[in-house]
């Protein structure tokens, strides 16, 4: 695969957002496989995935269906590694004038057009997820995005240097200065407890309104009477112990106010100076983040060259609903958020939990899985939290719980819906305070572990039925991922089948490398009540039975869907039962143990049934 | 020898922590943040081990003379600072507080003293409680001194309109004002309790004469300065900048007057 990107100035004609719909409306011609475009501020970014490399002139031809083809004429195309790095830089680099958050919003919007209008675009989606993940990582690990890149952020910073971030000062805005109004509107109302904004009309009128203001921060335009403002602000100083911050456009006002007063009077040029003051730190951080971009580019190429383009941390899918889940995963994984995974049995809940763990900063720490329904209730508490010697009969030594083992890592609790109320209370305490207490112990232990839970039940219903604590449910349900069953994403059956064939042909040391169309059709027609786990077992069976390089319908086991309504054909229950047992006997070569396991009955029951139904 | 070696070793560890805090303040690297905490916490842990080792060896708390009291003061201040840092999640103060700890530990190591040759009067519980109250009070004043100094530094950079190092790395003026306020309020209470327990002990040992002791006068004046700070703050008759200047002045007075009373004048508090 070959990647190209161009990041160019938008021509004047394209001051309006481009018509993305038209862009994706044209079919992809060879060698174009995927395409993406987004307007970031005053620049246009185009990313192309090609089957093979082509000359730059041809690239321009490929983008001609774009409504902005005239923009690409001057484009300096970058290829492969450089193209991918350019994508990361266009989205996340702080040295660009447009704020990162705005760029990410624009990319998200452009991605929604891509999803609506084209089929699966695994390469571009993968890059998009990497961008989102990098953003979270950089945001958490560096102060990168806190560094002011413009006067608006510098003003915000200035306010934070006087007031704590959780204190909301009062702001008064007086005058007609467009720059000050813009400054205020971009910092946002939510930072201030009270905002008083007055446009300048007659000078006296504004000043008489100013008289009523008791602000901590003032934005004063130069169309306000300086003398009155100075007197007013000096009087204001008696109402506050912290210095008053004034942003003005007049240096005259600045000189008068700072003279012997505990006030900071900044002009817009001073705010620019603050931005400049961060130059060194910014350059250093830009260098560090570019290294990250490079590392991520290498990781992307490793993934792309592996040929497993449907593989997201072991989860195989190209389905839009799964893509939405992957997007959520990359956003929440770096943040220490509790995640609840809902989905039918066999949909891959544990794989999702593992992906979250691997994408978090805890990836080198333990990942502990607990199946809550597999452990009896009276043992579960001791398993999870440990116990002290003598806590109960048989507790002869102190035992460390799984939570302690998962310290600094992640603990995944599967089948959480089966938990008893007493354990729900204990887990609730862990979620609130990060503390656990071993059974029989009187000391609490602080645990730093991320909790991921999963269930195949509808917890909301269980809460309304009174079977699950509502407070615990709300604590768990910070981020909920609902996995679709396999029959809702049948387009993934082919790629999952290929994946499992590769896996089992290696396991059985066989040269099975595909599946014929008839067999695949059978797989597509099945309803897959057991989801991916069922498909995995079917392919394992087929690989074991296969006699050639491709799986044929004969290699497949009898799928329950094939004995549908038509095949009942007026048979009685006894006849159906007899047929089912006969099939099982022939499948397992009359191995009674295996047949009992398959049918879920005991040996005695099997003997009785064989006698009753006259099966020899 | 045990005390000298321990104090020198602890000085080295505090010096290392100081260097790391300063480096972290300068480069603001997350990795440094982890490292500096490990080193500082390990230093304090060793200091605690030394403290209990001393208690076991000499059957008393190390507060009976200036070097011992200085060492214990550093330990108490460091523990208070760790608790503070954990609560407010702000590490920038460490770069300014730890140099003080290092200097004080170094001075304590330099002053010669004999831990075995201690007056039996100083084994009284009332004396030990008095000294511990006073040391916690001084720790409060120290924290207030550092936060007020940082308030003034940040205030200066803000008025200069420069995005200098202090501007970039320090939290808000309001934060320093709050820390200074809380530490002064706490210190005033502990020093008051120290006065009460000290008076009880002083009357028993020296009768009324202890009130004329230069060290008692020095601390009383300091307490009055900070009480003035408390009153001004509550009557809102001065800005935070003025209050910060007052807090810094109060602490400088405490240091100078203590040095003069213990070093030059014949103070009853000089137990060396």
Can you give a write-up of this model?
The complex is a heterodimer of chains A (616) and B (272). With 616 residues, chain A is of the alpha/beta class. Chain A is 48% helix and 15% strand. The model of chain A is unreliable at 563-567 (pLDDT under 50). By secondary structure, chain B is mostly helical. The two termini of chain B are 16 Å apart. The longest helix of chain B has 36 residues, at 125-160. Chain B folds into 2 domains: 1-115; 119-272, no CATH class. At the A-B interface, helix 7 and helix 12 of A face helix 5, helix 7 and helix 9 of B.
Q: What key phrases describe this protein's structure?
A:
heterodimer, A: 616 residues, alpha/beta, Beta Polymerase, domain 2, Rossmann fold, five-stranded parallel β-sheet, B: 272 residues, mainly alpha, 2 domains, 9 helices, globular
Strand content range of chain A: 5-15%
Distance between the termini of chain B: 16 Å
The number of strands of chain A is 22
Number of domains of chain B: 2
Task: Output the strand order for the largest sheet of chain A.
Answer: 6-5-7-8-9
The string of secondary-structure elements of chain B, in order, is HHHHHHHHH
> Largest beta sheet of chain A, briefly?
5 strands, parallel
Oligomer classification: heterodimer
CATH superfamily heading of the largest domain in chain A: P-loop containing nucleotide triphosphate hydrolases
CATH class of the largest domain in chain A: Alpha Beta
Described by the principal axes of the CA atoms, the overall outline of chain B is: globular
The two chains with the largest interface, and their residue counts, are: A-B, 27 and 26 residues
Number of H/I helices of chain A: 27
Taking all Cα atoms into account, the compactness measure Rg of chain B is 19 Å
Q: Return residue spans of chain A where pLDDT drops below 50 for at least 5 consecutive residues.
A: 563-567
The biggest beta sheet of chain B, please? none
């Amino acid at each position: 695969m070959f990647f190209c990107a161009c990041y160019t100035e938008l021509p004047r004609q394209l001051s309006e957002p481009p018509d993305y719909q038209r862009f994706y409306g044209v079919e992809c011609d060879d060698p174009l496989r995927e395409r993406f475009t987004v307007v970031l501020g005053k620049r246009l970014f185009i990313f192309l995935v090609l089957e093979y490399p082509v000359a730059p002139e041809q690239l321009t031809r490929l983008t001609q269906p774009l409504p902005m083809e005239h923009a690409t004429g001057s484009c300096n195309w970058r290829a492969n590694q450089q193209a991918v790095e350019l994508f990361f830089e266009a989205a996340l680099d702080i040295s660009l004038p447009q704020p990162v958050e705005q760029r990410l919003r624009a990319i998200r919007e452009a991605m929604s057009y891509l999803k609506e209008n084209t089929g699966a675009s695994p390469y571009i989606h993968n890059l998009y997820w990497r961008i989102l993940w990098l953003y979270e990582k950089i945001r958490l690990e560096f102060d990168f995005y806190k560094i002011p890149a413009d006067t608006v952020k510098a003003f915000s910073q200035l306010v934070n240097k006087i007031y704590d971030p959780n204190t909301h000062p009062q702001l008064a805005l007086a005058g007609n200065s467009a720059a000050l109004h813009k400054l205020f509107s971009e910092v946002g109302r939510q930072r201030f407890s009270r905002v008083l904004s007055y446009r300048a009309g007659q000078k006296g009128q504004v000043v008489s309104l100013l008289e009523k203001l008791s602000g901590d921060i003032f934005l004063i335009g130069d169309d306000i009477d300086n003398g009155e403002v100075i007197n007013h602000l000096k009087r204001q100083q008696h109402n506050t112990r912290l210095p008053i911050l004034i942003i003005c456009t007049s240096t005259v006002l600045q000189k008068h106010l700072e003279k012997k007063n505990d006030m900071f009077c900044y002009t817009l040029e001073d705010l620019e100076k603050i931005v400049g003051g961060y130059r060194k730190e910014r350059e250093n951080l830009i260098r560090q983040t570019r290294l990250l971009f490079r590392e991520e580019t290498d990781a992307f190429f490793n993934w792309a060259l592996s040929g497993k383009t449907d593989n997201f941390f072991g989860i195989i899918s190209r389905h839009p609903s799964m893509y939405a889940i992957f997007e959520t995963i990359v956003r929440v994984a770096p943040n220490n958020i509790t995640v609840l995974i809902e989905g039918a049995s066999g949909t891959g809940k544990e794989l999702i939990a593992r992906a979250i763990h691997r994408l978090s900063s805890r990836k080198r720490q333990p990942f502990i899985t607990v199946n809550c329904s597999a452990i009896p209730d009276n043992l579960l508490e001791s398993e999870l939290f440990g116990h002290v010697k003598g806590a109960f009969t048989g507790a002869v030594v102190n035992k460390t719980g799984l939570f302690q083992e998962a310290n600094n890592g992640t603990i995944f609790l599967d089948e959480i819906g089966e938990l008893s109320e007493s354990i729900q209370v204990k887990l609730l305490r862990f979620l609130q305070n990060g503390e656990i207490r071993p059974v029989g112990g009187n000391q609490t232990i602080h645990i730093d572990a991320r909790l991921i839970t999963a269930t195949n039940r509808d917890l909301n219903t269980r809460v309304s039925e009174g079977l699950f604590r509502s407070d615990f449910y709300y604590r768990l349900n910070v981020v909920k991922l609902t996995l679709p069953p396999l029959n809702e994403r049948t387009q993934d059956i082919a790629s999952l089948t290929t994946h499992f064939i590769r896996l089992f042909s290696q396991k059985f040391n066989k040269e099975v490398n595909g599946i014929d169309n008839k067999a695949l059709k059978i797989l597509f027609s099945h309803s897959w009540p057991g989801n991916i786990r069922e498909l995995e077992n079917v392919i394992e069976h087929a690989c074991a039975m296969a006699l050639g390089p491709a799986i044929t319908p004969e290699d497949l086991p009898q799928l329950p869907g094939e004995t549908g309504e038509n095949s009942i054909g007026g048979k009685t229950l006894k006849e159906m039962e007899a047929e089912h047992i006969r099939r099982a006997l022939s499948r397992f070569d009359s191995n009674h143990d295996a047949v009992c396991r398959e049918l879920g009955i005991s040996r005695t029951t099997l003997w009785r049934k064989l006698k009753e139904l006259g099966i020899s | 020898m045990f005390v000298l070696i321990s104090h020198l070793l602890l000085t080295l560890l505090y010096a290392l922590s100081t260097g790391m805090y300063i480096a972290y303040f300068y480069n603001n690297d997350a990795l440094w943040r982890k490292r500096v905490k490990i080193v500082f916490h390990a230093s304090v842990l060793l200091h605690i081990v030394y403290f209990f080792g001393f208690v076991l060896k000499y059957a008393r708390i190390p507060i009976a003379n200036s070097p011992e009291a200085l060492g214990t003061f550093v330990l108490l201040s460091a523990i208070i600072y760790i608790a503070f840092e954990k609560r407010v999640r702000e590490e920038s103060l460490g770069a300014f507080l730890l140099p003080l700890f290092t200097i004080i530990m170094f001075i304590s190591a330099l002053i010669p003293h004999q831990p075995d040759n201690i007056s039996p009067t100083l084994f009284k519980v009332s004396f030990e409680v008095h000294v511990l109250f006073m040391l916690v009070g001084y720790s409060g004043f120290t924290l207030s001194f550092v936060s007020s100094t940082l308030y003034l530094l940040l205030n200066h950079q803000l008025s200069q309109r420069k995005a200098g190092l202090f501007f970039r790395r320090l939290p808000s003026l309001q934060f320093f004002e709050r820390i200074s306020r809380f530490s002064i309020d706490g210190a005033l209470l502990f020093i008051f309790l120290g006065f009460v327990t000290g008076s009880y002990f002083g009357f028993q040992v020296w009768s009324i004469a202890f009130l004329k002791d230069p060290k008692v006068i020095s601390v009383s004046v300091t307490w009055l300065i900070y009480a003035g700070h408390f009153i001004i703050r509550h009557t809102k008759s001065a800005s935070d900048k003025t209050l910060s200047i007052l807090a810094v002045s109060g602490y400088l007075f405490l240091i100078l007057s203590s040095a003069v009373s213990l070093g030059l004048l014949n103070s009853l508090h000089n137990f060396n």
